[in-house]
Amino acid sequence: MTSVREDDHREAQAVGAPVAPTAEDPVAEAGSELIGGPLGRRASLAGGHSWWNPLRVIVSVAIGMFALGMVQKVPCYKSGWFFGANTQYAKACYSDIPHLYYGRGFSTSLHPYFDRIPDSVSGGMSYLEYPVLTGLFMQVASWFTPHSGSIQNQEQNYWLVNAGLLLVCTAVIAVAVARTNRRRPWDALLVALSPAFALTSTINWDLFAVALTALGMMLWSRSRPLAAGILIGLATAAKLYPVLLLGPLLLLCLRAGRLRAWRSALFGAAAAWLVVNLPVMLLAWPGWIKFYSFSQERGVDYGSIWLIISQRTGTTLAGANSYATAVMLLLCAGIAALALYAPRRPRFAQLAFLVIAAFILTNKVYSPQYVLWLIPLAALARPKWRDFLIWQAAEVMYFLGIWMYLALTTGGNDKGLPLDGYHMAIGVHLLGTAYLCAVVVRDALFPDRDPVRWDGSDDPSGGVLDGAEDVFVLGRGHGSHAAPARYGDATRAQWGTGPAAGEEREPA
C-alpha cells in the first residue's frame, strides 16, 4: 500500500512534471526538515509562479557554497600562502593559484608558452605545464590583476580575480547539470551542496574544464552532437580528461545505430581542439609540448595507489606509466563490455562517470581538486543522496589527509598525519570512488534500480540515444526500452508496455 504523497509523486511523473527528490529519496526527505520539510501535495515542483524556481535555487545554493569555500581559505589569504609553507597545510587552505602567479611568470608579464620562465622563478619548470586554454584563463586573470604593490598583495588579488572567474564557472556548471535532465533539475543540488566542491573549487583551475564539459553534456542531451563535440574539444584544450567521454559515446552510438551523431561530435571536438592548439603548436612548440612531456615524465605522486605501492616497497616504480596504462585499458574494456552486454543500454552519464573514475583511480597522481571532474557526472549518473554523501565523506577525508600529511612532512615537528595515516586516507578515497562505481555498474546491469529510470525514462541526458532501439548488442542483451513494471498504469500507457490497467505485477 502506498502513501498519498507517493501516489501524488507518481501521478506527477506520469504527466511529465519535474521529479521531487524529497518524494523518492529518504535522505533528501530527512534533510529537507532543516528548511521546513518535503514539498507538499500542492507545491509546484517547477517553481510555479514563484521567482524561486529550481534553477535559481540551485544556482543560489552553489554560489553560497562557493563563498563558504572561499571563507575556508581565509587563513591562507591573510598569511598562510606567504609566511611559512606549513600554515597552508595545517589550516588545509592551500591553493596553487597565488603560488603560480609568481612561479610561472605572470607577475612579470611573461607570455605563457612563448616566454621561457627563469629557473630562479619557477624552480626548474621552463614553461607553463598546463594545456593551452587553461593557460589563457590564467593569463586573462593576470590582466585583471593590478601589478602594483607588494608581491603578497598581487598574489592575493590574483587569487580573488581567479575566484571570481571560477564562481562564474560554478554557476555555469549548476545550470548545465540542472538542464541536462529536464525532468530532474533538482539533482543538480548534489553538485551545489557538495562539500568537496566547496573545499577544492579554488585550489586550481579545474572548474573551467568542468564547466565546458558540463555544457557539452547539456548540448548532447539536446541532440546537438556537433555543438557538444565543440565544447568537449574546448574542454580537452583546458584539461585532458574530457576527451575520454568520446569513448562511451562511441559505444552507445554503436549500440543504438547513431554513429552519424558520434562522428559529428568527434569532428566538432577535433576541430575545436585544433583551433585552440594549432597556433601555439606552430609558434611555440617547446612551450606547447611541456604539458604533455611533463605528464609523461613525472613519477608517482600524491594520492595515487602507485604511491602506496612505491612507498611500501621502497622502489621508485619506474614502470608506473605502463602499469597505469595497462590497468586503465582493462577497466575501459570492462566498461565497453558493460555498454554492449548490459540487458538495457546504459545511460551516457553512467558510462561517462565510470570512464573518468577509472582514469582517476589508475592515474599516477590524484590532486584533491580532481574530485571536481566527477561531481557533475556523479549527480547525473547516480542521483541518490546516500551514495553521493558516502563518496563525498571519503573525499573530504582525503582532502584533510593530504594536507595533514604535508603539514607533518614540511613542518619540522610531530604535528600532522604520519605515512600510515596518509596511506589510509588514500585508501578511503579509492574505496569511496570504487563504491560509487559499483553502484553505477549495478544500476546499469539492473535498470530497475536506476532512480533516473523509475519514471519510465530511457536516457534523458542521452540526446539522440534517448529512446533509440538497439541495433548492435552482444551476448544476451535485448535492448528493451520498456518501462519497468513497478510504475503506475499512466506511465506504462505512455510507453505502451507492461500489464494492462488494473493488473498487478512485482518488479523484476
From TrEMBL:
GO cellular component: plasma membrane
Region (Disordered): 1-22
Subcellular location per the Swiss-Prot or TrEMBL entry: Cell membrane
Tree of life domain: Bacteria
Membrane topology type: Multi-pass membrane protein
Membrane-traversing stretches: 127-146, 158-178, 190-220, 226-253, 265-285, 323-341, 348-368, 388-409
Alphabetically ordered keywords of this record: Cell membrane, Membrane, Transferase, Transmembrane, Transmembrane helix
Pfam families: GT87
Molecular function per GO: hexosyltransferase activity
Biased composition range(s): Basic and acidic residues: 1-12
Family of this protein: Belongs to the glycosyltransferase 87 family.
Protein's name according to its UniProt entry: DUF2029 domain-containing protein
Annotated organism of origin: Actinacidiphila oryziradicis
Lineage: Bacteria, Bacillati, Actinomycetota, Actinomycetes, Kitasatosporales
